[in-house]
Amino acid sequence: MGNLDQHITGFELWHLSLPVVSARDHGIGRVDGACEIIVLRLSAEGGEIGWGEASPWVVFTGSPEASFAALDRYIRPLVMGRPVSDRAEIMRQASRAVAHCTEAKAALETALLDLEGRISGLPVHKLLGGKCRDEIPLSVSLANPDFAQDRALLDRLRADGVRIVKLKTGFRDHAFDLMRLEALAQDYSNFALRVDFNQGLEPKGALSRVRDIAAFKPDFMEQPVRAPLFGLMAEIRGAIDVPLLADESVFGPEDMARAIHEEICDGVSVKIMKSGSLTRAQEVAGMAERHGLKAYGGDMFEAGLAHLAGAHMIAATPAIDLGCEFYQARYYLAEDILETPFPCNGGAVQVPDGPGLGIRPDVDKLNHYCIAKGRAA
Ligand SMILES: [Mg+2]
Predict the structure, then answer these.
(1) 164 C-alpha to center of ligand 1: Å?
(2) Cα 252 to ligand 1 centroid, rounded to whole Å
(3) Can you list the domains of the chain with their CATH numbers?
(4) 283 and 129 in contact (C-beta within 8 Å)?
(5) Residue 105 above 90 pLDDT?
(6) H/E run at residue 193
(7) What's this model's pTM, rounded to 2 decimal places?
(8) Which of 98, 190, 197, 354 has the highest CB neighbour number within 10 Å of its CB?
């Protein structure tokens, strides 16, 4: 067991712009060209390194600039010179030092856990309570405005053994959604189907649209209306016989408590980038489980480093049993940033067992895609 009393002596940041292979439309916005993430590298005086990723989406959680500044300016002084074993206290102080910026805090806790795992020789899932599963079923989202391209993706997914897809709906007219659902039912019926509106429906007419979609019997339907509309979420839940999941309405445990109290959903999409840490994501999932709700392993537009953090968290969280959507590293980024490919095969993510996160980023790739660096430590 390595020495966790050693101090953190390095804090480096990369703001990356990562090219993507196609446009994607979601109810609240479009991604095209590239997505931007922040990568954090912590080093300890003994030479060990810990990595973390913040994956913001500007219309959903916040901007990359906000994540970068939160880490570079406000969180850095809380971390430098502290013992590695101070993880929980560092997280508590970071949560108070800067409001929101949940993606930055997720990156920080990921890097602290990775560093602790590297020093102690333990995988992150063990630091989070121990592994309850070796594999996590993988869902890939279909969000291409050109459905012919999504059909080509579906053929590739089928060949790769992927058996779950999530159709992004509500970014165009209702007929486009129904046409794609009919095509999926007819030509791709061996895929389990989920539907996600990403808040895309206006309140007027939402009920009739969700009823039409529910007729296709997806496993679940996610966040049809805007995040603050808890009353309408509850109304929609009562109007369909398909489980309704909250995503944008529930960031952390505080929102989960309200969602449970107001009975707005049958389940929740748990994301470390929303909750602001892996441990808070576990808390959200645990609250859902205690109230009979389902939990799903959601994500943002992430690279493989954030996928790894999410995979370790889900591996140690029995309540999250609807699979995960860590597909971007393999199916959406032109090139991922890890040294070896993010492990997903046969339609599932394989949880790494090496120390820390198990796989490191490739520093040459970080430098290649870098558009801004943090201050020198
Ligand atoms: Mg969603």
Answers:
(1) 15
(2) 15
(3) 8-121+362-373 (3.30.390.10), 127-350 (3.20.20.120)
(4) no
(5) yes
(6) strand 192-196
(7) 0.97
(8) 197
